[in-house]
Amino acid sequence: MSALLLQELLQAPSETLWIADENSKLLLQQGFQFDGDLLSNRWDIAERAEGKVGRSFFSDFHFEELDRNYRRIVYSVSKEKAIVHHIINQAPHFLGEGGELVLLGEKQSGIKSYAAKAAERLGTAKQLQKHGNEYSSTNRVDHPSAGELIGELDYPQLRSLPELNGLYSKPGLFGWNKVDKGSALLAQQLTTELPKEGAHIVDLGCGYGYLSAQLAPLGKFHFTATDNNAAALHACERNFHSLGMEGVVLPSDAGSELESGIADLVLCNPPFHQGFQVEGDLTDRFLQHSARLLKMTGTALFVVNEFIPLAKKGPHYYSEVQLVTREKGFCVYRLHP
């Protein structure tokens, strides 16, 4: 995707907005330069882009913060359908007449369907070009009034969901409207792995804050929750506030920005997908930073899919790795420095 994406970014770059999801990460290497603006819901992408692009924005795709219109919007479509629909819906508001929305993606990304939806939204004919294993769709805004909105219309709104016992979540966050089975299994272990009163808990890859919310009623703790995703941070912060939890919610790439040796307990259900791809080193990064964050007397609790070889990876960072339980395709591990 990088070659096709780069080709599109080099057309009128100063008048282009690059919507950069995790699929765009490979381009942001040393020596890369883009004169336009970048908007991403990924903390690591927005941070890596600093100094390499005209302006870098980190948010849950809040276009209104950009304070300008564009001639072109270039977007490699995200894995989350709700995000793609939101961006297609917003595009006409930030493209002048004659402006272009360029969508990119491989076949499995749903690009053909998104091309049709973009044409419907912008009131144009569907346009799709094949480039090897990749496709591009360029839709021009030819009329001041765009077509009907597509998909879910209240993407920005947090929702208190009964299936999450009233916790807040929203589209744009992986598994946003359900309790992850692995996290539920880890939460079941918390009563027997209970830290001391006043302990500092670090929730790595916190999502909407489910694990912290399950631990909070069991004692008085201070929480630091981190995630790379803007929607997750927004939801987790709301849940901390609504539950009266003591702590902070911070953007971070696997906890890399946090101070060493602060945690009595680390909770982690690490992701293993980066966009549409399985990225094997994600687990290693969470293990590495969790070990750095723990006090020498601390404990880390990880839950992973059973095909993730945490029992082999863990000893590279911890002196003790114990399997706590294995159920329904998931494993919970207890790790000590």
Automatic annotation (TrEMBL):
Catalytic activity, EC: 2.1.1.172, 2.1.1.174
Domain Methyltransferase small N-terminal: start-end pairs: 38-121
Keyword Nucleotide-binding on entry: no
Pfam families, per the entry: MTS, MTS_N
Keywords for this protein: Cytoplasm, Methyltransferase, rRNA processing, S-adenosyl-L-methionine, Transferase
Gene Ontology terms for molecular function: 16S rRNA (guanine(1207)-N(2))-methyltransferase activity; 23S rRNA (guanine(1835)-N(2))-methyltransferase activity
PROSITE patterns: N6_MTASE
InterPro entries referenced in this protein's UniProt entry, alphabetically: DNA_methylase_N6_adenine_CS, Mtase_sm_N, RsmC/RlmG, SAM-dependent_MTases_sf, Small_mtfrase_dom
Domain Methyltransferase small span(s) in chain numbering: 167-334
PANTHER family in alphabetical order: RIBOSOMAL RNA SMALL SUBUNIT METHYLTRANSFERASE C
Name the record gives this protein: Class I SAM-dependent methyltransferase
Lineage per the UniProt record: Bacteria, Pseudomonadati, Pseudomonadota, Gammaproteobacteria, Cellvibrionales
